[in-house]
Design goal:
487 residues, alpha/beta, Rossmann fold, 2 domains, six-stranded mixed β-sheet, two-stranded antiparallel ribbon, 41% helix, 7% strand, globular, Cytoplasmic tRNA 2-thiolation protein 2, tRNA binding
Length: 487
């Protein structure tokens, strides 16, 4: 695309023209404007949520459209002031989160004191989660990286921005559990290491470590911690930096891991989350949900890299957004990442094709707005997965058993010659009723299909954070109520 702008002075004239997928060729100035425009379109729902307290895609037919959130202003009378949302940005230091931080500056300009227009948001909180490693990352190295991120955030020129760094092991710090508050940071770190890095002899299968399931567990813990932190900091919006390539990877990865039932969340630009207490009190009508959004999910990785080059930005950890796994451990996540990256290089429309196809599926996600319009909020009819929070399909644990060879009951030759009526009552897949009863009392009934392998990958389920057990008990009580009603 031609324009009247002169060639950038910092580009070598001998360098070949840069082409961008589905966008044509741009000079530096026009490309920057193009990317900001793309970002604003993807993030308009976040601004609308901040302004009104409700989401743009609430169906008008549901009768649940909300009025803008207001508070009574000073001086009495009927004068009201608009209430804006605080935003929490989960920053890993990778390409996506760095680009998102730079783009967010447009919403936090230095305002004139005489300006009467309310700001887009009430404030920005940047949270970096320190990913505890197997042997513990050296304190000096981790502290240096954290300080680097803090300096970077403070140098952005965003007024009243707050930077917070927390370890992933804080997932074990639960205010509702008195014992967890008395634990030291070292004890929580040791619990995390024991959970995410078991030895083969500790796992139920006593075979090689299932790094794929452990990687899924770590990602679930990360997002649970970010959502918890957002509520603690009174932030109504949580934004993360997954770009188009990363969302495409999550889509294929999710399908491979059995998360097709919740694929809407895997590729969603935004969805709303309520904790259990909010759903029971129906506080959604007051606009107290947490909006989780991916404002840069419409931007390709190649476009992000060019934006970094044009703006001369520094990306602290360029590879962290690619789902790379250290120590050469083979996981489905790593294989999918390499597959999508290589395919995108050869066929540049791969990512858009994957996203366009999956968005048409319209499968059920964890979006609280959908449950509100279906009349499920405030009742006991919906329970999310105890680990990842995603929707749990009825009978998922039985289906997993039905297709798992290791769960088949071995029969002797004598029983094979008898008639079906003489054989001990079993299911069609050879699992005895006692096993089903045992499974019903375990964690399996509280998990989605994609998380069912996690309990087998860890040493023992008691190592999981306390909220997992609370969710299991809650679902168990709900099942007991349903059984009692049916009887």
């Amino acid at each position: 695309m031609s324009c009247s702008q002169p060639d950038p002075l910092d580009v070598d004239e001998t360098e070949p023209e840069r082409a961008f997928i589905a966008a044509g060729s741009y000079c530096s100035t026009c490309f920057e404007a193009y990317l900001y425009s793309k970002f604003k379109r993807s993030a308009e729902g976040v601004r609308y949520f901040s302004r009104t307290g409700t989401s743009m895609d609430h169906s008008p037919l549901s009768g649940r459209q909300l009025q803008p959130r207001r508070e009574v202003g000073g001086g009495g009378g009927d004068r009201h002031i608009h209430v804006r949302s605080r935003v929490l940005l989960g920053m890993s230091g990778g390409l996506g989160s760095r680009v998102l931080l730079e783009l967010l500056k447009v919403w936090f300009p230095i305002r004139e004191t005489s300006s009467k227009a309310p700001p887009a948001f009430a404030g920005l909180v940047v949270v970096h989660v320190e990913m505890d490693t197997e042997h513990g990352q050296p304190d000096q190295e981790q502290n240096a990286f954290t300080e680097h991120l803090k300096t970077l955030v403070e140098s952005m020129g965003i007024k009243d921005v707050e930077f917070i760094s927390i370890p992933l092991s804080d997932i074990f710090k639960d205010s509702s559990t008195p014992d967890s508050t008395s634990e030291t940071a070292l004890e929580r770190h040791q619990k995390l290491v024991q959970l995410l890095h078991p030895t083969p002899s500790q796992t139920p299968s006593k075979t090689k470590i299932d790094h794929t399931s452990l990687a899924s567990l770590q990602r679930s813990l990360l997002f649970t911690l970010l959502r918890r932190k957002a509520r603690k900091e009174k932030c109504e919006v949580l934004v993360t930096g997954e770009g188009s390539d990363r969302v495409a990877e999550l889509t294929i990865e999710g399908m491979a891991l059995g998360r097709g039932y919740s694929i809407g969340e895997e590729v969603g630009v935004e969805w709303e989350v309520l904790d259990r207490q909010q759903e029971q009190k129906q506080e959604q009508a007051k606009g107290n949900g947490l909006l989780v959004a991916r404002p840069v999910s419409g931007i390709l990785r190649a476009e992000m890299e060019e934006f970094v080059r044009v703006k001369r930005l520094v990306v602290p950890r360029p590879g962290v957004d690619r789902g790379e796994v250290a120590n050469g451990r083979s996981t489905i996540q790593a294989v999918v990442t390499k597959f999508v990256t290589d395919l995108q290089k050869e066929f540049p429309s791969t990512v858009q094709t994957v996203l366009a196809t999956v968005h048409k599926l319209g499968m059920r996600s964890t979006d609280a707005r959908m449950r509100i319009e279906e009349g499920e909020t405030g009742s006991e009819s919906w329970e999310g997965c105890a680990i990842c929070g995603g929707p749990v399909q009825e009978g998922a644990h039985r289906w997993r058993k039905a297709i798992t060879m290791s769960d088949l009951v071995e029969t002797d030759h004598a029983s094979a010659t008898r008639s079906i009526e003489d054989v001990e009552p079993q299911t069609v897949i050879g699992i005895s009723e006692s096993k089903y009863e045992e499974s019903a009392n375990s964690l399996d009934t509280s998990l989605c299909y994609g998380c069912l392998l996690i309990p087998k990958a860890i040493a023992k389920t008691e190592d999981l954070p306390s909220y997992v057990e609370r969710q299991r008990r809650s679902r168990r009580r709900m099942d007991d109520v349903v059984k009692e009603f049916l009887i």
